[in-house]
Amino acid sequence: MDTAAVIAVLKTDAQEIRFGKIGLIVAISIISPIIITLSYAAFQGTF
């Protein structure tokens, strides 16, 4: 949610949003456990 807010602020300033390799690796390492956990909970029926 904070990431979306930062992107929205950057887009209002008409700045170009660029992600490097390190930023992409960090984003994937943060988002993938969340997706895995939510998927596991959905399949187990505890969500």
Question: What does this protein structure show overall?
Answer:
- By secondary structure, the protein is mainly α.
- The chain has a domain of 31 residues.
- Helices cover 74% and strands 0% of the residues.
- It is built from two helices and no strands.
- The longest helix has 24 residues.
- The two termini are 20 Å apart.
- The relative contact order is 0.08.
- The mean pLDDT is 79.
Short note summarizing the structure:
The protein is an all-alpha fold and 47 residues long. The protein has two helices and no strands.
Key terms:
74% helix, 2 helices, mainly alpha, 47 residues
Mean pLDDT: 79
Gross morphology is elongated
**Strand fraction:** under 5%
The total count of helices amounts to 2
Strand count, sense and barrel status of the largest sheet are: none
**How much helicity do the residues have?**
over 70%
Number of strands: 0
| Radius of gyration based on Cα positions | 15 Å
Structural class: mainly alpha
Give the helices and strands as they follow along the chain.
HH
Low-pLDDT residue spans = none
Task: Please give the alpha-carbon distance between the first and last residues.
Answer: 20 Å
Topology, element by element:
Elements: H1 2-12, H2 21-44
